[in-house]
Amino acid sequence: MARLNTIADAMSAIKNASDGGKPSVIIEPASKLIGSMLGIMQESGYIGEFEYVEDGRGGQFNVGLVGRINRCGAITPRFSATADEMEGWENRYLPAKGFGLLIISTSQGVMSHEQARRAGIGGELLGFVY
């Protein structure tokens, strides 16, 4: 069966493994977008090391978990947000100001909402984690 939303599948796999106390999780199929999202989560300390493994069927990511994730998920539909609107989306998806992050696809690549706000650019909301 075809996967319709690989970002949502990846985020739910991370959340379920984290809730279950697992030390790692395998995310498949792999994509550059999911790899970029994992990089943002790693920079912020929500996940540990991750590596890409080619398995002949689209590849997979082996992600080490550190147990800091309370909740994460994909934002569907992928709403567009300007730099000025970022605070409203932060209030909608994150529990408190300065706690957690939104992952955004911008014209300059995938970044957190804080990086996008500092750069003064908007983009499409992909997911959240806290």
Automatic annotation (TrEMBL):
The keyword Cell membrane does not apply. One of its GO terms (cellular component) is ribosome. GO terms for molecular function: rRNA binding; structural constituent of ribosome. Keywords: Ribonucleoprotein, Ribosomal protein, RNA-binding, rRNA-binding. Gene3D superfamilies: 3.30.1370.30, 3.30.1490.10. It comes from the Archaea. GO terms for biological process: translation. InterPro entries: Ribosomal_uS8, Ribosomal_uS8_CS, Ribosomal_uS8_sf. One of the primary rRNA binding proteins, it binds directly to 16S rRNA central domain where it helps coordinate assembly of the platform of the 30S subunit. Part of the 30S ribosomal subunit. Belongs to the universal ribosomal protein uS8 family. This is Small ribosomal subunit protein uS8. The gene is rps8.
